[in-house]
Design brief:
The protein has about 900 residues and is an alpha+beta fold. It has 24 helices and 26 strands. The relative contact order is 0.07.
């Protein structure tokens, strides 16, 4: 229970938190943007999300939307529909181990934060705490009311869970204080009070509330349930909303209505009494409930509202003394209630015929979500209109994609502020228009709400791009982050405890880091934790941050990473801090901060080469494990491949600063030998035709993918790009074989880059992930900025190679789809090594060797008896007319 005045803004300036979720009934969004948001961000709290009543959200946008600049770009609002009102008032701030819960009666407005008489309490968490149960209760409540979260808001809620995993733990709720949570159709607040207080005889009931219902059902229910000997209503006569003429009809012997006597403070004498407080006094103990519930039927009795309150137990007389209410509970303060009346409620109808829940912009596509029952099946189209800073930005046709979802591809001009949209259905006199919704730009919100982990990913990406010896540390960290994330063993930064391989002393001889420092992959797969209640692996929550950072720095050429606070436990962040202060350890430098001697340069160069090799080998091991165990592929695996592809594109052809004499750190033939096996298993693997064998074909067919997801779409374009580059490289070095099992392995198979690449492109096509020529050119143009390898090949050559691969992939699809092993056409074509044929056991693949009446086929991505070939009769294959081009 609070014992002193709480200045909310001053409180928000203390502590270090990553996330802030504010729950409010109504909000002054301009006040939030101008005062509260800068306060939060200036103290390192970047992930900021508001939950508010849907009707109040409509009114806020209609009245002040033209003044907003950061909504949908630096923070999000999730409007919550309710049959009554979404009425809680909560501020939840969390970090990796710490938390703060502020709960009370004030809304997110200037008056709610400063001038009103409000009642708040604060609970803090530092490390493990007895108050964990309160935090976890309120988080479960938030997750319940936020079931309508999509896109940006869902990502921000996941970020809270990922950066504050203790919120999802199971901890016992404390006996005192107790959270009382109200929601439509749930247990009433009065019933929860009765359960908590029990059969304690209540001598006096004190109620502070600015609003009462017209029939005084809230008061009646409290009196009937607890049967107090005395009842005091403490009110502000000039502002309270109460049917005074009905108070006399309450059959309570000692019933008093007294005028609130404001304590001495800096507040104005006319400050609005907005606090909601209920004090139950008995001989042995007192109980006090404070929070959002007014003394009304909707809040306390038959819940149609969402409400949050906190109930505390104390000594007799404690709460009246703490809240300075003694002077308000004197009979000389009593007033005649007959002069009190219900206040006229402000209109809550939005400026539209129906409501929009959300509007989400991802890349060039917007999705809008309609609240309520939606429309009839005959409604298939609508029009979206956009405004920015109060000015029209244009309109576009919207297509109905689902019952309550419309999509469009608007060409919005650059608008510096918040963009507001409305949806219109119908034409002329029959047209109906929605209430406004702020467009949430997913890319901008993701960049504006970095977690500590995403900041770590940014720093690692910057180190890899630096060209200095930090390059090795960055790559070694990436290996760990991509393939060694186990939340069950997480440290402060959420990465497995063995992730600090980069900081261990390296061997002096030219060998890799010892494999013993890595967990066996089977154990890793078995121990990967599931994010509680979401079904996503712990890795997936961080992989998105890694891929975002790599894409930003390696596709868009970002020069500087975020300057946010360093991650605890991050060797890289620790080193960079030391480097900037001039105290970095010898032998590792930041570009421009020192020099390497010959031995140090050689060692740094070796570490970088080994790190690239290890990165691609770990991916190959992952793919082989998935294949051999018949496991389902997740989107995480596609994201991993995207990350490795990006790193390979960026690393090929580069030299280490101050170690140029040792040559490039990665050559295209290294990528061919180490990365192509993973491509073969995930995308190019042979498939048994006309078979129900679920384990046949590329592992990518077994993945559950959202092809509209930005990261998944990006995966397709990046993969097509590196496949084109590998084919081009193979054609220029045709005489040099590519071995999958090492150059000493007699079963290694050379030359098959073309068929692996073409089959992979065909798989992307079947999955709906093959980029268009325009999408391919866009990714290529961005990649040229940071890839020496691609720059050396040239735009025209790569675009030509991609076009050819796409054409050949279409032929492969057509041949395999129409293949009938019982009706093989009589072929007059003389088969030669390098020809592409179709066989029942492999689909389209390449002829490796011809011996008499038999042909040996490249059994891509599927070794049989430790060989990559399969022998089959020549009359059992169908020529395709394609062959490996030289």
């Amino acid at each position: 229970m609070p014992s002193e005045a709480i200045e909310l803004l001053a409180r928000l300036k203390t502590g270090t938190y990553e996330n802030c979720v504010i729950i409010t009934y109504n909000a002054d969004l301009f006040f939030f943007e101008q005062v509260v948001l800068p306060t939060l961000r200036s103290h390192g709290c970047y992930n900021n999300l508001l939950l508010m009543d849907l009707k109040q959200y409509d009114l806020s946008l209609a009245s002040a939307g033209h003044m907003l600049g950061r909504l949908g770009k630096s923070y999000s609002v999730l409007p919550v529909p309710a049959s009554g009102a979404f009425h809680p008032k909560v501020i939840l701030q969390t970090g990796s181990r710490n938390g703060r819960l502020i709960l009370g009666s004030g809304n997110l407005t200037v008056r709610g934060f400063s001038s009103n008489w409000e009642l708040f309490s604060e609970v803090s968490r530092t490390g493990e705490s007895e108050g964990d149960g309160l935090f976890q209760q309120i988080w479960r409540y938030i997750r319940t009311v936020a079931q309508g979260a999509v896109g940006a808001t869902e990502r921000q809620l996941r970020q809270v869970e990922e950066t504050s995993p203790w919120l999802a733990e199971d901890a016992e709720a404390p006996t005192w204080p107790r959270l009382l949570l109200g929601q439509p159709g749930g247990t009433s607040i009065v019933a929860q009070l009765r359960e908590a207080i029990g059969n304690t005889a209540i001598q006096r009931l004190v109620v502070l509330s600015p609003c009462f219902d017209p029939e005084l059902r809230g008061v009646r229910e409290l009196v009937d349930t607890f049967k107090p000997q005395q009842v005091w209503l403490v009110v502000q006569p000039d502002s309270v909303s109460i049917p005074g003429n009905k108070i006399s009809k309450l059959k309570i012997k000692e019933f008093f209505v007294s005028q609130f006597n404001a304590p001495q403070s800096g507040k104005s004498a006319e400050a609005f009494l907005h606090a909601k407080t209920y004090i139950f006094e008995s001989k042995s103990a007192d109980y006090c409930l404070w929070g959002s519930p007014n003394c009304s039927k909707a809040a306390l009795v038959e819940p149609t509202n969402f409400e949050v309150g906190l109930l505390q137990k104390g000594k007799p007389g404690e709460f009246v003394k703490t809240l300075n209410l003694a002077s308000s509970l004197k009979k000389n303060r009593c007033i005649d209630p007959s002069g009190l009346s219900l206040r006229e409620q402000k209109a809550t109808a939005g400026s539209g015929s129906f409501r929009l829940l959300a509007a989400e912009m991802r890349d060039d596509t917007i999705q809008v979500f309609v609240a309520g029952d939606g429309f009839g099946e005959e409604v298939r189209r609508g029009r979206l209109m956009f405004w920015g800073a109060g000015r029209p930005l244009g309109e576009v046709e919207a297509i109905r994609q689902a019952e309550k979802t419309f999509t469009a591809k608007p060409r919005l001009p650059h608008a510096g502020g918040t963009v507001i949209c409305r949806l219109t259905i119908g034409n002329g006199a029959d047209a109906v228009t929605s209430t406004p919704a702020a467009v949430h730009f997913l890319g901008e919100i993701a960049e504006s709400t970095p977690s500590r982990r995403s900041c770590q990913a940014d720093r690692i990406s910057a180190a890899i791009r630096s060209g200095s010896a930090d390059w090795a540390k960055g790559l070694e960290s990436i290996v760990e982050l991509l393939f060694r994330i186990e939340s069950s063993e997480a440290g402060d930064d959420g990465v497995g405890q063995t992730h600090q391989v980069a900081s261990k002393k390296e061997k002096s001889e030219d060998t890799e880091i010892a494999d013993e420092q890595f967990q066996e992959y089977e154990d890793f797969v078995g121990s990967t934790a599931q994010a509680r209640g979401k079904g996503a692996s712990a890795a997936s929550l961080f992989l998105e941050d890694i891929l975002s950072a790599l894409s930003s720095q390696m596709l868009r050429g970002v020069e500087e990473s975020s300057d946010d606070e360093d991650l605890d436990g991050s060797d890289l962040a620790k080193y960079q801090e030391e480097a900037e202060s001039g105290s970095a350890e010898a032998g590792v430098v930041v570009e421009g901060h020192g020099f390497l001697d010959a031995d140090e340069a050689f060692e740094a160069h070796r570490r970088i080469r080994n790190a690239y090799h290890r990165l691609m080998q770990r991916l190959a091991k992952r793919c082989e494990w998935l294949r051999d165990n018949g496991s389902t592929v997740s989107a995480d695996d596609f994201w991993r491949l995207s990350a490795v592809n990006l790193l390979a594109l960026n690393g090929c052809g580069r030299t280490l600063s101050q170690a140029e004499s040792f040559g490039t750190v990665l050559e295209p033939y290294n990528v061919l030998g180490d990365l192509l096996p993973s491509m073969a298993v995930l995308l190019g693997r042979v498939r048994v035709l006309r078979s129900d064998n679920a384990n046949s074909g590329p592992l990518g067919f077994r993945a559950s993918l959202d092809i509209s997801d930005h990261r998944t779409r990006q995966f397709g374009a990046i993969t097509a790009l590196i496949l084109s580059a590998l084919v081009d490289r193979r054609r220029h070095w045709n005489k040099q074989p590519v071995f999958f099992r090492g150059e000493d392995d007699p079963n290694g198979w050379p030359y098959f880059t073309d068929i692996v690449a073409t089959r992979s492109i065909a798989t992307l096509s079947r999955l709906g992930l093959l980029p268009t020529a325009e999408e391919y050119s866009a990714v290529l143009g961005n990649s040229l900025k940071t890839s020496s390898w691609l720059s050396g090949i040239g735009v025209a050559c790569l675009e030509k190679t991609f076009a050819e691969l796409s054409r050949r992939a279409k032929v492969i699809r057509d041949v395999e789809d129409k293949f009938n092993p019982n009706r093989l056409p009589a072929s007059t074509v003389q088969l030669k090594p390098g020809a592409w044929v179709c066989a029942p056991s492999s689909g389209v693949t390449e002829v490796a060797e011809i011996t008499g009446q038999f042909v040996q086929l490249a059994f891509i991505g599927e070794p049989e008896d430790d060989t990559w070939f399969r022998k089959i009769k020549a009359n059992c294959v169908q020529p395709t007319g394609l062959s490996r081009s030289c």
